Amino acid sequence: MSKVIYSSPENLKELFQLLEQDQAATLWAGGTDLTVKLENKKIKVSHIINLKNVKELDFITASETIRIGALTSIRKLETSNLMQTEYPLLAQASHGLGSWQIRTLATFGGNLANAAPSAETATPILVLNGTMIIKGKNTERKVPAAEFFRGPGQTVLKQGEVLTEVELPKLTSDFKSIYLKHSLRRSMDIALVGVACALRLDGDKCLEARIGLGAVAPTPIRVPKTEQFLTDKTLTTSMIAEASRLAVEECRPIDDIRATASYRRELVQVLVKRALTSLVKDGGSDENTD
Ligand SMILES: Cc1cc2nc3c(=O)[nH]c(=O)nc-3n(C[C@H](O)[C@H](O)[C@H](O)COP(=O)(O)OP(=O)(O)OC[C@H]3O[C@@H](n4cnc5c(N)ncnc54)[C@H](O)[C@@H]3O)c2cc1C
């Protein structure tokens, strides 16, 4: 058995020095995805760099924008008052990830960098128009969340780069948001379909719609035609039903071990309808939806 080098940098400077010496080293945050991959022999590691002591990456700050460090635990996202009030969809998505033991270990950056099409926090970030901050030794680039994911397990991250934080614009107070997930088991299971939805509402009228879907395409996606269809419309029952049908047309699910593509399409229709209905009921004095 070959030796594995283990490093535990205390700050970003040390981290980038280590990465410069060994760009093929594996970044280890909570390890909840990596442990499973190692166990299943899906990856080989020669050098693990544990990020846990790089405290500079563990923060949530709010000023003009809200910034969330990559090392922030999913449990913190779930329980943060700021997340619950500013971005209920992100707090709800975090609440649905694994068990509390997993959420305590698992990090925001790990969930995003792992780039599973079902990644719970990815669709909220798309809907919130997040910007990913990516740093290398002497570089920094900002990538819109919509351009970050490249395919299952693939992102724009290059060797030697680290996702350090995600920057999120604040939503105006007329936005309402929700995250819904359906999985085979009620807990401890990844989404068959995840739906993140934010609507800017004036009573029952939709001024802006943002909808993200997880696990129905090679990456988490937005559904622009559906969003456009809803914009400037009064959200009646029939309008919502039509929008949920449109969302199905915009996704590209596959058959896999968990579900068939056609079942996933059914789920998209049901969950988008449920999300829109609940936001209108919550946000307006609506009697048009059931
Ligand atoms: C029992 C169980 C249940 C789960 N349930 C769910 C679920 O319901 N929903 C869901 O979405 N996921 C689920 N997961 C998957 C996993 O817990 C999450 O994806 C978690 O957020 C990963 O974070 P981590 O810190 O553990 O990542 P790690 O395993 O440490 O890393 C994951 C990947 O990201 C890379 N990485 C980590 N941090 C950075 C960074 N800052 N910059 C660049 N690359 C980085 C690593 O190198 C690795 O390739 C589950 C896992 C388990 C074991």
Task: Please give a structural write-up.
The protein is of the alpha+beta class and 290 residues long. The protein has 12 helices and 15 strands. The strands form 4 sheets. It has a 5-stranded antiparallel β-sheet with strand order 4-5-10-6-7. The N and C termini lie far apart (61 Å). It binds flavin-adenine dinucleotide. Flavin-adenine dinucleotide binds next to strand 2, helix 2, helix 6, helix 7 and strand 10.
Secondary structure elements and their pairing?
Elements: E1 5-7, H1 12-21, E2 26-28, H2 32-39, E3 47-50, E4 60-62, E5 65-69, H3 74-79, H4 81-86, H5 88-95, H6 100-105, H7 108-114, H8 122-127, E6 131-135, E7 140-144, H9 145-148, E8 149-151, E9 154-155, E10 162-169, E11 175-182, E12 193-202, E13 205-214, E14 221-222, H10 224-230, E15 233-234, H11 237-250, H12 261-283
Parallel strand pairs: 1-3, 2-3
Antiparallel strand pairs: 4-5, 5-10, 6-7, 6-10, 8-9, 11-12, 12-13, 13-14, 13-15
The protein binds flavin-adenine dinucleotide (FAD).
Flavin-adenine dinucleotide binds at residues 26-34, 36, 70, 74, 97-98, 102, 105-107, 109-111, 113-114, 118-120, 157, 162-163, 188, 190.
